[in-house]
Design a protein that fits this description.
By secondary structure, the protein is mainly alpha-helical. 60% of the residues lie in helices and 4% in strands. Among the domains are: 107 residues, Serine Threonine Protein Phosphatase 5, Tetratricopeptide repeat (Alpha Horseshoe), CATH 1.25.40.10; 237 residues, 3-Layer(aba) Sandwich (Rossmann fold), CATH 3.40.50.300.
């Protein structure tokens, strides 16, 4: 086992795997061999087999805090947050002074959106050990996710004062600076992270996002060399593939850029579960529920609060740009991608509701929508008190427009659209955080989803004429001022020249467009997709253009 562990630590994956399997062949109940083989399989892209082995090891040693903690970590990586939290709690119960398990518990609570609970866990850990940098890192991440970016940056600075060469903290601080729009400082933090850990694939990917690759340089060569050494199907190789795709796109080497991005997407797709047919059924069910007859016989709530401004559409269609323009108006606060609409709808119309979701909605009283509207506004005003208008830019809320109209009929809904091929290519080039866009890692599945989205928006226009205000990305690029004036007029706001200088707005931007919206309107991306040629045939052939 010692030799296998040493090989594992040295990332000599194949040799370590062979030794682990030899131990298990001789002793099938060897908990440590099963456990660390499971971790190795997870690290090299075979998470399903790895998880089974790690669970086997925990069954043999159910109070082993290290095993419980590692099992929680794998479950977290697989998107099973609730199960992960349970195992982290069991690890803490088995070993109360296990700071790593406490940190992991805080992290998974953060992933579930339970920011106050996560903050409490991290601050409690810091109280136990003020010099425990990982807890400060978790606290900073939690504050950042909760939209408290300045507080998060202050926490990262405290952590760097304790450990100035910690690659993880440097990376996190760089991401925060990027979201704040301080791109040059962000690039410097990513470079400092790489100086501390040259193999940190995440830092290479983020550096590529904030850096404009103008020529082949030493950094590009180092990233390519690390990519060549990374195990196939590993997380590191995926991150480096997306980073190299961005760099070669900058260099206008589009075939190479696409090949890197395609590899990154293929790796990501192997690690997720996505059912395109189930998605199709969900879209059809929503249309069938919110039919023309439904709106002819139902009355929207009497809520006249028009504080929220919803920005919806496909990701990478200009939603961040449009929100940035709106949020540059002095009467508007840009809150970014909020989950509170989903929370309010889920509370009022749960998945296990009588009749099922969404079909059971047809039998619910109009008051249910008013109650959900009040729940949404309570959460919005508690989080952002005193603002005249607040943007809620969750692109996928286009699915919930029927709910929005019934819950908050005075709220404005702005729908962003862009050329379908350009939108899909931009999505395909993006390694999204979390698991909100599982359809996006295969060109065929991506085209199918875009077709469903297009059909859904046509449905809303048919059953709710005039409720949604459409804007097109290409129109904004061609006529920034004219389109901005029309948008501000639709929102019922007085004109303010600040909306034309949206790139100077230092508000927090957490999306994949965080770097782009710090630049003036850019026309070069409108027809960029045409330069990818035949690489996009599988996409174009399936899109309903």
């Amino acid at each position: 086992m010692r030799q296998a562990l040493a090989l594992h630590q040295a990332r000599r994956w194949a040799q370590a795997e062979e030794l682990y399997r030899q131990v298990l062949k001789a002793r099938p109940d060897h908990a440590a061999a099963a456990h660390f083989l499971g971790l190795l399989l997870h690290q090299t892209g075979r998470s399903g087999d790895g998880l089974a082995l790690i669970e086997q090891s925990v069954r043999v040693e159910p109070k082993n805090a290290d095993f419980l903690n590692n099992l929680g970590t794998v479950l977290r990586d697989l998107g099973r947050a609730a199960a992960a939290a349970d195992h982290f709690r069991r690890a803490v119960a088995a070993r109360p002074d296990m700071l790593a398990a406490r940190d992991n518990l805080g992290t998974v609570l953060k992933l579930e959106g339970r920011f106050e609970a996560a903050e409490e866990v991290f601050r409690g850990t810091i109280g136990r050990n003020p010099f425990h940098v990982r807890a400060r890192l978790g606290l900073g991440d939690t504050l950042q996710e909760a939209g408290r970016l300045d507080a998060a940056l202050a926490v990262f600075e405290e952590a760097l004062a304790i450990r100035p060469k910690d690659a993880e903290v440097l990376h996190a601080y760089g991401v925060g600076l990027m979201e704040k729009g301080r791109l040059a400082e962000a690039a410097e933090m990513f470079r400092r992270a790489l100086a501390a850990d040259p193999a940190m694939a995440r830092a290479w990917q983020m550096l590529s996002q904030v850096k404009r690759q103008e020529k082949a340089d030493g950094e590009l060569a180092a990233m390519a060399a690390l990519h060549a050494r990374a195990p196939e199907n590993s997380l590191e190789r995926m991150q480096l593939s997306f980073g190299l795709g961005k760099a070669h796109d900058d260099l206008r080497q589009y075939e190479r850029a696409f090949d890197y991005v395609a590899e990154g997407n293929a790796i990501r797709r192997k690690g997720i579960a996505y059912d395109g047919e189930r998605t199709r059924r969900e879209f059809e069910a929503m249309k069938a529920t919110f039919s023309k007859a439904f709106f002819e016989h139902r009355r929207p709530s009497a809520i006249d609060d028009d504080t929220p401004i919803f920005v919806v559409g496909m990701p990478r269609s200009g939603t961040t740009l449009v929100e940035q323009i709106i949020a540059s108006h002095p009467k508007v606060f840009g809150a970014g991608e909020l989950t509170i609409l989903k929370t309010a709808v889920g509370k009022g119309f749960p998945l296990d509701m009588k009749g099922g979701f969404p079909a059971g909605i047809a039998d619910m009283p109009d008051k249910a929508f008013a109650d959900a509207g009040h729940d949404y506004l309570d959460m919005l005003h508690a989080r952002y008190p005193g603002f005249r208008h607040v943007t809620d830019k969750m692109p996928g809320n286009f699915m919930l427009i029927g709910f929005l109209h019934m819950m908050l009929p005075k709220a404005k809904i702005v729908h962003c659209a862009r050329n379908a091929v350009a939108t899909c290519l931009s999505i395909f080039k993006t390694n999204f955080r979390g698991d909100g866009h599982l359809y996006s890692y295969d060109l065929g599945e991506l085209a199918d989803f875009h077709n469903l989205y297009t059909d859904m928006m046509a449905h809303w226009r048919d059953v709710l004429p005039g409720v949604v205000h459409d804007v097109r990305y290409e129109d904004f690029v061609a006529d920034q001022e004219g389109q901005s004036r029309a948008l501000i007029e639709y929102l019922g706001l007085p004109w303010d020249d600040a909306v034309l200088s949206f790139h100077e707005n230092q508000r927090q931007v957490r999306t994949a467009s965080a770097a782009q919206v710090r630049q003036p309107m850019y026309k070069g991306s409108v027809d960029l997709w045409t330069r990818y040629g035949d690489k996009l045939k599988p996409l174009i052939e399936k899109l309903e253009l």
